[in-house]
C-alpha cells in the first residue's frame, strides 16, 4: 500500500489526499464491497428493501433512489402499496386469485385438478358470500387429435368441488370448452354461465386409449368407461336441464356448438361483453355491510339486498 504513495502523482492524476482516501484499507470502496453479498444483490432483497422497486443508489446511500422498474402496482394482500412490501413479488395465479378468478387453460390433467381444487377451497373458505369466477379455455381430457391426455375422474373431482363450495361459481368460456370442460361450464351458477362471442363448445363421450392385456383387464377398463360415461351424462343433465336419454342420444357423436347455439342448447346463459356488470370486480365487502345495516334497521323484516348484489 505504501508503494502507491511513492508513484509520481501525475501517473494517477490524484492529489496526495485523494491517494490517501482510496489507497487505504478503510476507504469507501472497501466499505461498500464488504456489504455486497449474494443475498444483498438478489432480486428478492431488492424488492423487499426498496419498496417493490429495483433501484440504483450511490455508494454513500444519500439522496433519492433512481428507480428503473416498478412492480409496486400490486395492491393485494402481499403488499402495502407504497413503502416496503411484506412478501416477495406475487406470481400471476396469485394476482388472479386475489380477484377470485380461477383459470382453466389447458387439458384437465392431475396437476391442473390439484391447483383448481385448492383454489376453490381457499376462496370458499376466505369468503363464501362472494362468487368465484371460473374462466375456461380447455379441450377437456382429450387433445386436438382426440387422444386422451387426462382422466375423466379429474373433471368429476372439480365438478364435485364446485358443488361443495358455498360460493356461487360464475363460469366463462373464453376460447373453447370441449368435453369435460363443457360439462364444468354448464355447472356454473344459473344465469351466470357466459361465453365470449367467438368461443366454441363441444360435447363428446369419454373414451380410453387403445390398450391390450389380459381379458379381465380389458373388461375392467370397459366397466370404468361405462361408469365415466354415466357420470358425464348425469352431470350434463344437471347443468343443461335436459333428460339423460336425450343427451345420450345427442352426443353419440361429438356435437359442436358456436356461441349462440350453446346458449340455445342450455350449456350457457348469455354472451359476455364489456357492459356485463356481473363479471366486474365489485366491492362486495361494502355491499355486505349495506345488507347487514338494512337488516339491523328493519328487525323482523326481510330487507332487500343492495342493487347488483345477489
List descriptors.
2 domains, 2-enoyl-CoA Hydratase, Chain A, domain 1, two-stranded antiparallel ribbon, disordered C terminus, 41% helix, 14% strand
Please explain how this structure is put together.
The structure is a single chain. With 310 residues, the chain is of the alpha/beta class. The chain folds into two domains: 68 residues, no CATH class; 188 residues, 2-enoyl-CoA Hydratase, Chain A, domain 1 (Alpha-Beta Complex), CATH 3.90.226.10. It is 41% helix and 14% strand. The protein contains 13 helices and nine strands. Strands 3, 4, 5, 6, 7, 8 and 9 form a seven-stranded mixed beta sheet that branches. Helix 9 links the parallel strand 5 and strand 6. The N and C termini lie far apart (78 Å). The C terminus is likely disordered.
